[in-house]
UniProtKB/TrEMBL annotation, chain A:
Its main location: membrane. It comes from the Eukaryota. Pfam families: Clat_adaptor_s. It is found in: Cytoplasmic vesicle membrane; Golgi apparatus; Membrane, Clathrin-coated pit. GO terms for biological process: intracellular protein transport. Adaptor protein complex 1 (AP-1) is a heterotetramer composed of two large adaptins (gamma-type subunit AP1G1 and beta-type subunit AP1B1), a medium adaptin (mu-type subunit AP1M1 or AP1M2) and a small adaptin (sigma-type subunit AP1S1 or AP1S2 or AP1S3). This is AP complex subunit sigma. The keyword GTP-binding does not apply. Belongs to the adaptor complexes small subunit family.
From TrEMBL, chain B:
Adaptor protein complex 2 (AP-2) is a heterotetramer composed of two large adaptins (alpha-type subunit AP2A1 or AP2A2 and beta-type subunit AP2B1), a medium adaptin (mu-type subunit AP2M1) and a small adaptin (sigma-type subunit AP2S1). This is AP-2 complex subunit alpha. SMART domains: Alpha_adaptinC2 (SM00809). The keyword Membrane applies. It comes from Oryzias sinensis (Chinese medaka). Residues 688-797 form the Clathrin adaptor alpha/beta/gamma-adaptin appendage Ig-like subdomain domain. Keywords: Cell membrane, Coated pit, Endocytosis, Membrane, Protein transport, Transport.
Length: 154, 881
């Protein structure tokens, strides 16, 4: 599972294992308390239940991944970084508001990058190409729409 | 309005989101959301058919509301409709909604599956990707059933686009994780392995993830992947010339793929083919070498990626555990990391070194870093790093450094975080025992543990110290002296009082010669703690007092006075009262000889795995459970013969048949005194009987008789075990089987034939054990017997009177049973016991009445030692409530 969040508010969450909604909420709350209480100099890994938590803070946003015992922590840290790079590239210097207002886009990027909890493609270009292609399709779809809308407004 | 960026046509959504953000209070937010929900609901219900765009917008709003943490109970149908739109973004939002919000048992799953099927067949890569993502995100069983055959086909199809292949690989991985039984293996496995050779590194990365999971489950089917992985890895790692373009991450060549390939190789032993093996060794050496080169970038991403690969390579080296040079190099590398300024690296180095410490090749090399690790324990500011340091110290500990490490851990314990104290206590206790050269050091260490962190010292720890003191007579005098001194402290932990009580009770005589610790002084010291202790400790102290009476006749009168006092003889606690009464009588009527026999020193405990170790393993979740769980029956039977010991029956008969000295047969000693008056003599009888005899009764209780008949020829033996049901009713779920310790399994082969699960009343069944003695042995196999006597009657009936607790209680008491509080975990239930006396026999009765006020029903269960009595009582009582 993977969650990204800012101080005390969950902005984006993705679960790669089947979990009941109530348990999810409980786990999120618990994790938030632990992670937010940690000080900047502390290490980015911690053991939690039978999982390992890897987290990193970018400005007001915390990104957390829960991984299994034998998974590689450092590479997970870089998974987070690569995801942030992708968001950054796509939104052009990403900030929390981008993720709030375009939450669906953030989900699409995450989906393109990770699938079922595993990396789908590590190349920034490939992932962004996929997203941009989708945007292009979207714009094609929507160009007549905006004209119509303007007419409706006028 | 802030940040509405690229390609976003949904103005309504943005307005809504910013409205929500402007809400000053939680109430305002809820109000705004309810307004919006009403709006959307009316739009969806309205007569006018909505166009795709509006549907998408509303569905997206619903999704946003859901993500804020509110419940959404409609809109699913509209989302499913979006799936069949041929506009990409509408489809995309539809799929997003489905994967976030639809749970697997939804009725809509058929419709969704249908839409996915269409998209998979569409040959449009973008649509196929969305469909595959949806399958992977939902990952339900229904989806696995529908697509488990289709996804592998897409994965290996020659004409699939790279992106689709990647999605298909990971989708298959997800299906394999959720429903492995549904994913057929077979014809496509070879082609999946060959994806490791694919041109496109993205495809290789995704395929490697899939192959790792598959290879873990069926290593043989994917054996060929190992050689391909080595080849691929060596191309990435050793050839500097290839430009991996976008797959180079901060000057590190394809770190993710490298890590995955190294992970894959950890599913297999080192390659047998020498060429392949040397190629792999070369790779690993290169990775280790690169760590010594100056970094190509100052960015943390560069070093993280490089070290991620390095640590995974070290994990592989440890996994292979066959190349001493590599192991030692790995250890040195980690040693450097121990002093690194990055906290993350120090943490990982400590963690990784833990596994290195257990390899015989690198154990010594790890030990050279002990001072650094001890330093880390003292100076690290992060508790999770300190925890790793404790783990590593534990792993590197051996006879040569145990004293220092234990001392450091004890020192750390004084300031350690509460969260890890218990674990440290267990570790210290285990190390102290395992590496104790002289046991006085061991005793000191454990007493220190109790002093420093008494609250974290679990029962097992003090049980263990007593076991050891009893088994080693060289330490008994020292132990008595030390606990006596420790008890002088004005405030000492209750665990110390327990240890002190037990040890002085057994070995107080060894220090009684010194006037400073004369019997009376010892007794007064113990008794000064008595009133501050809990009931179990007091019970233990009473037992120590009766032992004193035997050891020191001169304090008999004093102790009898104490036992006679009202606070003992009339104590509200049944156990304490009983002990006081019995001990007092015992001291009055028994002659010195009898007293000496009854209160003899405890016999040594059988050697066995430390109960603390079992606890630590259990805490770590990896170990086996302590034996004797849930009172399932257990009986140790030695090859020609054995002894036994029974604990009282109720639900399942519990037997423990024990080999050599017939001491306490519990695997975790519970109250060590409870064996004082146990029928060990009888058990001993049964044991010795079989040493010189081949036939006879092995065990007998009110319910069951176990007889043995055995014949031996050279190294082969056959034992017929007869189980006789002594009651008039049947035993149900009867089973008996033999289990041996791992060591014993190699020394003795025991094969038991299965027995019928039912033994009729008065009947006897026979079980044949075939035994082969491979080599001499001293351990004994365990014969486990388990059954349920059929004397229980149950009835469920409707309440005929108002269901009031007090009324029911009064009726039960009036019926003549004693009610037992705190026995049933559910406080609403009534549990009672009683005895029916008749001239010929006494019939014990247990009853449980479970009210269900909701359904206005009762469930009544009765169990007595006679079937007919159970029936009758149940019938009588069920008409009363």
């Amino acid at each position: 599972l993977k969650n990204a969040r800012s101080s005390g508010k969950l902005r984006l969450q993705k679960w790669y294992t089947a979990t009941a909604e109530r348990d999810k909420k409980k786990m999120v709350r618990e994790l938030m308390q632990i992670v937010l209480a940690r000080k900047p100099k502390m290490c980015s890994f911690l053991e939690w239940r039978d999982l390992k938590i890897v987290y990193k803070r970018y400005a007001s946003l915390y990104f957390c991944c829960a991984i299994e015992e034998q998974d590689n922590e450092l590479i997970t840290l870089e998974v987070i970084h690569r995801f942030v790079e992708l968001l950054d590239k796509y939104f052009g210097s990403v900030c929390e508001l981008d993720i709030i207002f375009n939450f669906e886009k953030a989900y699409f990027i995450l989906d393109e990058f990770l699938m079922g909890g595993e990396i789908q493609d590590t190349s920034k270009k490939s992932v962004l190409k996929a997203i941009e292609q989708a945007d292009l399709l979207q714009e094609e779809d929507e160009s007549p729409r905006s004209v119509l809308e303007e007419m409706g407004l006028a | 309005m802030p940040a509405v960026s690229k390609g976003d046509g949904m103005r309504g959504l943005a307005v809504f989101i910013s409205d929500i953000r402007n809400c000053k209070s939680k109430e305002a937010e809820v109000k705004r959301i309810n307004k919006e929900l009403a709006n959307i609901r009316s739009k969806f219900k309205g007569d006018k058919a909505l166009d795709g765009y509006s549907k998408k917008k509303y569905v997206c709003k619903l999704l946003f509301i859901f993500l804020l943490g509110h419940d959404i109970d409609f809109g699913h149908m509209e989302a499913v409709n979006l799936l069949s739109s041929n506009k990409y973004t509408e489809k995309q939002i539809g799929y997003l909604f489905i994967s976030v919000l639809v749970n697997s048992n939804s009725d809509l799953i058929r419709l969704i599956n249908n839409a996915i099927k269409n998209d998979l067949a569409s040959r449009n890569p973008a649509f196929m990707n969305l469909a595959l993502h949806c399958i992977a995100n939902v990952g339900s069983r229904e989806m696995a059933e529908a697509f488990a055959a289709e996804v592998p086909r897409i994965l290996v199809a020659g004409d699939s686009m790279d992106g689709v292949k990647q999605s298909a690989a990971l989708c298959l991985l997800r299906l394999n994780r959720t429903s492995p039984d549904l994913v057929p293996m077979g014809e496509w496995t070879a082609r999946v392995v060959h994806l490791l050779n694919d041109q496109h590194l993205g495809v290789v990365t995704a395929a490697t993830s899939l192959i790792i999971t598959l290879a873990q489950k069926s290593p043989d089917d994917f054996k060929t992947s190992a050689s391909l992985a080595v080849t691929r890895l060596s191309r990435i790692v050793t050839s500097a010339s290839i430009d991996l373009q976008d797959y180079t991450y901060y000057f590190v060549a394809a770190p993710w793929l490298s890590v995955k390939l190294l992970r894959l190789l950890q599913c297999y032993p080192p390659p047998e083919d020498t060429a392949l093996r040397s190629r792999l060794t070369e790779c690993l050496e290169t990775i280790l070498n690169k760590a010594q080169e100056p970094p190509k970038s100052k960015k943390v991403q560069h070093s993280n990626a490089r070290n991620a690969v390095l640590l995974e390579a070290i994990a592989l080296i440890i996994h292979h555990d066959s190349e001493p040079t590599l192991l030692v190099r790995a250890c040195n590398q980690l040693g450097q990391f121990l002093q690194h300024r990055e906290t993350n690296l120090r943490y990982l180095a400590l963690e990784s070194m833990c596994s290195l410490a257990s390899s015989e090749f690198s154990h010594e090399a790890v030990k050279t870093h002990m001072e650094t690790v001890i330093g880390a324990l003292k100076t690290e500011r992060d508790v999770s790093v300190r925890q790793r340091a404790v783990d590593l110290l534990y792993a590197m500990c051996d006879r040569s450094n145990a004293r220092q490490i234990v001392a450091e851990m004890l020192g750390y314990l004084e300031t350690a975080d509460y969260s890890i104290r218990e674990e440290i206590v267990l570790k210290v206790a285990i190390l102290a025992e395992k590496y104790a050269v002289d046991y006085s050091w061991y005793v000191d260490t454990i007493l220190n543990l109790i002093r420093i962190a008494g609250d974290y010292v679990s029962e097992e720890v003090w049980y263990r110290v007593i076991q050891i003191v009893i088994n080693r007579d060289d330490v008994q005098g020292y132990a008595a002296k030390t606990v006596f001194e420790a008890l002088q402290a004005p405030a000492c932990h209750e665990s110390l009082v327990k240890v002190g009580g037990y040890i002085l009770g057994e070995f107080g005589n060894l220090i009684a010669g010194d006037p400073r610790s004369s019997p009376l002084v010892q007794f007064n010291l113990l008794h000064s703690k008595f009133h501050l202790c809990s009931v179990p400790t007091r019970a233990l102290l009473l037992s120590a007092y009766i032992k004193f009476i035997n050891l020191f006749p001169e304090v008999k009168a004093t102790i009898q006075d104490v036992l006679r006092s009202d606070s003992q003889l009339r104590n509200a606690d049944v156990e304490l009262q009983q002990r006081a009464v019995e001990y007092l009588r015992l001291s009055c009527i028994a002659s010195a000889d009898i007293l000496a026999t009854v209160l003899e020193e405890m016999p040594p405990f059988p050697e066995r795995e430390s109960s603390i170790l079992a606890k630590l393993k259990k805490k770590k979740g990896s170990g086996k459970l302590p034996e004797n769980v849930n009172g399932s029956a257990e009986l140790h039977a030695e090859e020609p013969a054995a002894a036994n010991k029974a604990s009282p029956p109720p639900p399942t008969e519990v037997l423990a048949l024990n080999p050599t000295p017939p001491a306490a047969a519990h695997s975790l000693l519970v109250d060590v005194f409870s064996d004082l008056s146990a029928p060990t003599a009888v058990a001993e009888d049964h044991l010795s009987r079989f040493i010189c005899k081949n036939n006879g009764v092995l065990y007998e209780s009110q319910l069951l008789q176990v007889g043995l008949k055995s014949e031996f020829r050279q190294n082969l033996g056959r034992i017929y075990v007869f189980y006789g049901n002594k009651t008039a009713s049947s035993f149900l779920s009867f089973s008996s089987w033999v289990s041996s310790s791992d060591v014993l399994k190699t020394q003795l082969n025991v094969h038991a034939k299965a027995v019928e699960p039912v033994i009729e009343g008065g009947a006897q069944v026979q079980q044949v054990l075939n035994i082969e003695c491979v080599t001499d042995f001293s351990d004994v196999p365990v014969l486990n017997v388990q059954f349920r006597p059929q004397q229980e009657v149950q009835k469920i009936f409707k309440a005929q009177h108002p269901m009031e607790t007090d009324a029911a209680k009064a009726k039960l008491l009036g019926f003549g049973v004693a009610l037992l509080e705190g026995v049933d975990p559910n406080p609403a239930n009534f549990v009672g016991a009683g005895i029916i006396h008749s001239k010929s026999a006494q019939v014990g009765c247990l009853l449980r009445l479970e009210p269900n006020t909701h359904a206005q029903m009762y469930r009544l269960t009765l169990r007595t030692s006679r079937d007919s009595v159970s029936q009758r009582l149940c019938q009588l009582l069920s008409e009363q409530f």
